[in-house]
Design brief:
It is a single chain. The chain is an alpha/beta fold. The chain has one domain (3-355): NAD(P)-binding Rossmann-like Domain (Rossmann fold, 3-Layer(aba) Sandwich). The protein has 13 helices and twelve strands. It has helices at residues 11-21, 63-73, 87-92, 94-118, 121-126, 159-178, 200-209, 229-242, 259-273, 304-310, 318-331, 333-341, 343-352; strands at 3-6, 29-33, 53-57, 77-80, 128-134, 182-187, 189-191, 214-217, 223-228, 248-251, 256-258, 286-289. The strands form three sheets. It has a seven-stranded parallel sheet, sandwiched between helices. The chain has a three-stranded mixed sheet with strand order 7-9-11. Strands 8-12 form a two-stranded parallel sheet. The radius of gyration is 20 Å and the shape is globular. It starts with a strand and ends with a helix.
């Protein structure tokens, strides 16, 4: 039995692969990743030489490659993490997001549909396609609005969220039209180890340590629900194990916090764990910048369905998760340096050669 994981060298996908293969009886993983700027095989360095991990560099939009991998490895499930995911980048260059998140998802679904159609008996009945998505497809909430449930209307406001919404609709359509046994998860903002330093938390940590400004959009009062990445991975495992076919599950951390509060928390932890040499707080580096276009004001996830149906809840509080995250970045300066310099791409060639 094998899992096919797409986007398994990215932030969430990489953490999932590591956590999955940390289980003593874990099934092997075929890990496909395009290795764009955010795909980093150095995240998976501990798996080098592990025969349970088979890495393939490739694109989910390459339907022929996907069909070949499915035929060769006969996975019992496909977990799709592959996506372009940074809102700012989608504003500057939306076409890449349409190509990966919409066209790529379509071609992956086509390959999976044909593969599933070829299966017989228990293999066909037990197969699952799990699509990992985002709470941003639901749009923006007002200060007093109830949190997003799985039945909330889709109202995406950025090219990124619109492209993810389109992929969600395709997954739903392939279930209702073709009977493909799908599961969809919509998660809140993830944070944790191996996060590419363009997103809020790792950017604040890296900039603070480098003595650079800590840029905060607008007034910084945009509210997000924060989910420790390891908790997200455990939720995906649980949905894969026992989720109802065709169902959508929201995954949240029950941690609504304003961006400016997150930044201050990071600064306070750094003040404690790695004080500045001049004795000043890292908070003095906070700089408010012009807000980005169409910035959603608030996201909040109601993960009650996942808890009530499948018994899942996050293991980390925000206080415990953010402390672990800051400590991880302090303990791994080499990883951060290589990501920032692009040297991790050279590492890929050294470790994996032509395979990467």
């Amino acid at each position: 039995m094998t899992l096919l994981v797409t986007g398994g060298a990215g932030f969430i996908g990489g953490n999932f692969v590591l956590d999955w293969l940390a289980q003593p009886e874990a099934e092997p993983v075929v890990n496909l990743d395009k290795l764009t700027y955010a795909g980093n095989l150095e995240t998976l360095a501990s798996l080098h030489g592990d025969t349970r991990h088979h890495f393939v560099r490739g694109d989910i939009a390459d339907q022929a490659l996907m069909a070949q991998l499915l035929a060769d490895h006969q996975p019992r499930a496909v977990i799709n993490f592959a996506a372009e995911s940074h809102v700012d980048r989608s504003i500057l260059g939306p076409e890449t997001f349409v190509q990966t998140n919409v066209v790529g998802s379509f071609r992956l679904l086509e390959a999976v549909r044909h593969y599933w159609g070829s299966l017989q008996g228990a293999a066909r009945a037990d197969f699952r396609f799990l699509h990992v998505s985002t709470d941003e497809v639901y749009g923006s909430l007002g200060p007093g609005d109830a949190a997003f449930t799985e039945d909330h209307r889709y109202e995406p406001n950025s090219p990124y969220s619109a492209s993810k919404a389109a992929s969600d609709h395709l997954v739903r359509a392939y279930h209702h039209t073709y009977g493909l046994p799908v599961l969809t998860t919509n998660c809140s903002n993830n944070y944790g180890p191996f996060h590419f330093p363009e997103k809020l938390i790792p950017l604040m940590i890296v900039n603070a340590l480098a003595g650079k400004p800590l840029p905060v959009y607008g007034d910084g009062l945009q509210v997000r629900d924060w989910l420790y990445v390891k908790d997200h991975c455990s939720a995906i495992c649980r949905v894969l194990q026992a989720g109802r076919v065709g169902q959508v599950y929201n995954v949240g951390g029950w941690n609504e916090k304003a961006n400016i509060e997150i930044v201050h928390t990071v600064c306070q932890l750094l003040d404690e764990l790695r004080p500045r040499s001049d004795g000043q707080s890292y908070g003095t580096q906070i700089t408010h910048v012009t807000d980005r276009p169409g910035h959603d004001r608030r996201y909040a996830i109601d993960a009650s369905r996942l808890h009530q149906e499948l018994g899942w809840k996050p293991a980390e509080t925000f206080d415990s998760g953010i402390r672990k995250t800051v400590r991880w970045y302090l303990d791994h300066p080499g990883w951060v340096e290589r990501v920032q310099s692009g040297a991790y791409r050279e590492w890929v060639q050294t470790q994996y050669g032509a395979a990467a």
